[in-house]
Specification:
about 475 residues, alpha+beta, D-Maltodextrin-Binding Protein, domain 2, 2 domains, 4-stranded mixed β-sheet, 20 helices, 11 strands, about 10% strand, globular
């Protein structure tokens, strides 16, 4: 009998280690502490504390008892300071949010837990998974990010768009040339100082421009040779177009120094009239603030991707999640940490994550009808943007504006998959960093006119290849 108990105990431990979800985590008297570090989520905020209480209460109702604690990130730029703080032990968390690819090296160093078995054995998390999530899990099983396809769409105030004579022409045929005409009319009519603005996040412009110039993915096959898209003729053509817009005063001359908040403020103030933002939650923020500032007529119109060589939004990477939550490998409470995700993906969890705190951000009648309050626009999801599992399903259309729903609809309509997406192998990370620095330098100089694109393009490609481009092409040949 004792031998049987020992065998069962060992099997139980093995299953837990393999990521099989556990039932009955903690107890009312001894909840399991789960520590979370997330960008822009401060433990001192009232909404964060209220959310913690709501999640803990919701999980307890299901027999899982946790004690959630949010950490404040060290001072500095999140993507720079967090990996260093994790490596040095300055901070210790069970769940950590990552973006901008800084998690790649941490995963290669064995610091992030493989979530494959957790996801496979889940109920609610798995229900929110899309095809691209499954593809990413197979190739990079360290991040959890449940939201619409990570796509950027351009948007403009509807009342401004309605003042443009070229509106119908552009919407019916959104060619690069017609987009140029749209920007020029905004400028000529004095509706903006710079019709198009951005920060220095290249994904924003890539999102609705790339395919028009024939940029179909991270890596492209050019005459039988696999190269990064940055050094293709399509990339050159896009940069020439952006330089033209810059020279004509149609593209914000401060784009290199704009931070995201400065960019958005220039948009709300009308210094610029077109920016690009992620579909779904980000579009909601833009739409809510624009309507609050300029009235109902200022609700946003989502612009189609530009049309040229092709027409689609920038190819979606199915190699890894573009950002998301990881569970740290050295966490001693991995089951409890994933149980938080499993709850957040349940109907009760989606309600908290998307609606906020009952009594503050929304009220619920006895028949279950939900009405949001004037505080709801201030709420934003701390976990996932997915509206799947939010019940009743009709609630989604009543919560989100036409602009928000349209952004998701168009992202699905013009979805394109990155055919040759790749993870950077560990032995080429240094080279890729050097190549990115070279591209950033030339990117800025080409657009602003500090370097002539036609005269300097070959120099750029040569520098790129000498600093790793050729090595990557050899690597690509071995895997494609």
């Amino acid at each position: 009998m004792k031998k049987l108990l020992v065998i069962l105990l060992v099997m139980s431990m093995m299953l837990s280690a393999a990521g099989v979800l556990a039932d009955g985590i903690g107890s009312p008297d001894a909840p399991v502490k789960v520590v979370i570090l997330e960008k822009d989520v401060l433990p001192t905020e009232e909404d964060v504390q209220l959310m913690i209480e709501a999640v803990e209460k919701g999980m307890a109702a299901e027999g899982n008892y946790v004690d959630l604690e949010y950490l404040e990130a060290p001072a500095g730029k999140y993507v720079d300071v967090v990996p260093l703080a994790l490596r040095t032990g300055q901070i210790a968390a069970d769940i950590v949010y990552f973006q901008n690819g800084v998690e790649l090296e941490l995963a290669q160093e064995g610091m992030l837990a493989d979530l494959t078995e957790y996801v496979n054995n889940s109920t609610n998390v798995k229900a929110l998974y899309k095809d691209y999530n499954w593809a990413r899990l197979e190739k990079f099983p360290y991040l959890l990010w449940l939201c619409p396809a990570f796509t950027y769409t351009a948007n403009i105030r509807t009342d401004i768009l309605n003042q443009l004579d070229c509106k119908d022409t552009f919407l019916a045929d959104p060619t690069v040339e017609n987009f140029h005409a749209l920007l020029k009319e905004i400028k000529d009519k004095g509706l903006a100082e710079y019709p198009l603005t951005t920060d220095n996040n290249k994904l924003r412009l890539d999102g609705f421009m790339n395919q028009a110039f024939g940029i179909t993915g991270t890596v492209m096959n050019v005459d039988g040779k696999y190269v990064f898209a940055e050094v293709t003729e399509g990339s050159k053509a896009k940069l020439k177009f952006l330089h033209q817009l810059y020279e004509e005063g149609l593209f914000d001359h401060e784009f290199l120094t704009n931070t995201w908040d400065v960019m958005e403020q220039r948009y709300y103030e009308g210094i610029a009239q077109i920016i690009s933002g992620r579909v779904g939650a980000t579009t909601k923020i833009y739409d809510d603030k624009m309507v609050a500032t300029h009235g109902e007529g200022a609700t946003l119109t989502i612009l189609p991707p530009l049309k040229g060589v092709g027409q689609a939004y920038a190819a979606v990477d199915v190699i890894r999640e573009p950002r998301g939550f990881a569970i740290m490998e050295d966490s001693e409470v991995k089951d409890a940490a994933f149980a938080v995700f499993e709850f957040i993906c349940s109907p009760a969890g989606r309600e908290i994550d998307l609606l906020g705190i009952e009594g503050k951000h929304f009220v619920k009648a006895e028949d279950g009808t939900v009405t949001t309050t004037e505080k709801w626009p201030e709420w934003w999801n701390r976990f996932f943007e997915s509206t799947d599992n939010l019940q009743p399903a009709e609630l989604v259309s009543s919560l989100y504006s036409d602009a928000v729903l349209k952004s998701v609809e168009m992202a699905n309509e013009y979805y394109a998959e990155d055919t040759y997406g790749v993870l950077t192998p560990e032995d080429l990370i240094t080279q890729k960093d050097a190549m990115n620095n070279i591209y950033n330098e030339y990117y800025a100089d080409f657009i602003t006119g500090q370097r002539d694109i036609d005269a300097e393009w070959d120099n750029f490609v040569s520098e790129w290849n000498a600093n790793g481009g050729d090595e990557f092409s050899e690597y690509f040949d071995s895997i494609f």
